[in-house]
Amino acid sequence: MNLTDFSIEEDNGRYVVAHNALDRGFYFSIKVNSSSPDITVALNPFANILTKVHGTFSVEMSPGQIASVETSHYREWEALSDSFDTWLQWVKEEIDTPDLWAEAAKTAQLFAYTAEPSDDKFTRTELAEVQGQLRQLQLSFTQSALPEEAKQKLIELTQTAAVKAEGLTKKDWQNWIIGGFISAITGLLLNPTQAGEVLKLVKAAFGGLFLH
Question: What is the chain's percent helix, strand, coil content, to nearest 5?
Fold first, then answer.
């Protein structure tokens, strides 16, 4: 993160810091409850955003750790600074986390050459190919560096996908499996690296499959 990635605005006596790439619901604001007539603002996302002043501070942090918006009050600048450092870490994690739904959309495009798969069911030949790819995907999950719990859940998902392929149309099956993998990634609380690895394996398994 760089200094130019952040903006700071004054809003009714509060100094509001936000990252330019994130939604405005993601912010850290400070109100200085001080009689000091002049407060110098110095935006520095790696240290402090205000010069040290005497007084008490009211802070709003969004999102909070246990609520969408959390309000805190501090009597010492050092304590406020620690809170800001925590928020910065959340900003970094948010920026570094891949957009899984965007990645899923890219993955879905690999399933077919047409814009959307058809409403037809798989032929016997196509079904055999799909189930063969699913078995290969299971093997890839088994050999991966993912946590054991994640491996087991993902293998179970591929087994269910093989059964679903027998009854669903190509279109419904594609939607089901993409949603299933994204839900699994979210439910297993995989970190960005692990989530990216899962999507990479899915792409490798189905990149050449014809579903149109």
Answer: 50, 15, 35
- Say which DSSP state 189 is in: T
Residue 184 makes CB contacts below 8 A (sequence gap 6+) with 153, 154, 157, 198
The encoded tokens of residue 75 equal 């009597």
Tens-digit pLDDT profile for residues 148-207? 999 999 999 999 999 999 999 988 888 888 788 878 877 887 777 788 788 788 878 776
> First-to-last CA distance in the chain?
43
**How far, in Å, CA of 82 to CA of 41, rounded?**
18
HSE value, Cβ hemisphere, 13 Å, CA-based, for 64 = 11
Q: What's at 64, amino acid-wise?
A: G
- 149: amino acid identity, one letter: E
117, burial (CB in 10 Å: exposed 0-12, middle 13-18, buried 19+): buried
Give the 3-state secondary structure of residue 43: coil
